[in-house]
Amino acid sequence: MTPEQLAQALEGRRRGLSFQTVAATLKVDESEVRAAVTDALALMPHDMDAEQERALSFSRIDRMLTGVWPKAVKGDPEAIDRVLRLEEQRARLLGEPERVRDGITTAVEETIAALTIEPEDSALVASIRQVARQIDHAVAFGSSLEATKAMYLLPHLWNGLGKLGATPEAREELKKRAGGINGEGNDKRAKLRALRTQAEKARA
């Protein structure tokens, strides 16, 4: 193949055309096109050690990003959406796990809804919600490093939930310290208040 034909073959593959289609367009044998493109891709510089098809996919994404980026930085909504989708494709090629938005916040809200919250616990509940939102925001919109760092906030989240009696360990501790609390009747709020009081006294 001539250098011009090789350039056309590479361009065709970048556009997603099959080897058969490229060969028919250039009027050369398919095996010749496949061998030439494979050799050319093997020589392409790339930041990571990946299969040739992955390298080709990265090349396609880079070319598309180059074309749409000027409009995206000017605020074109359609271009911005295209850039985001291309970046998602790049992340999948890199093997990055799919990011779940608001996963922890949703779970925390379900937990809080199942509890009997005292008015004096409002600040604690607000803090728990803020930590959950902070983690979810970093996971959904931050870099991989920022998403990983956000995981260090989880112990603070568990600690806050524990103070509300919303972790297995906290519930078990409250049960152990329940002692002879039977005079509170069936009032769930009163019983929980008494359990918390005993737990706080035990920690003091």
UniProtKB/TrEMBL annotation:
Residues 176-204 are annotated as: Disordered. Pfam families: Terminase_6. This is Terminase small subunit actinomycetes phage-type domain-containing protein. The lineage of its organism: Bacteria, Bacillati, Actinomycetota, Actinomycetes, Micrococcales. Residues 107-198 form the Terminase small subunit actinomycetes phage-type domain.
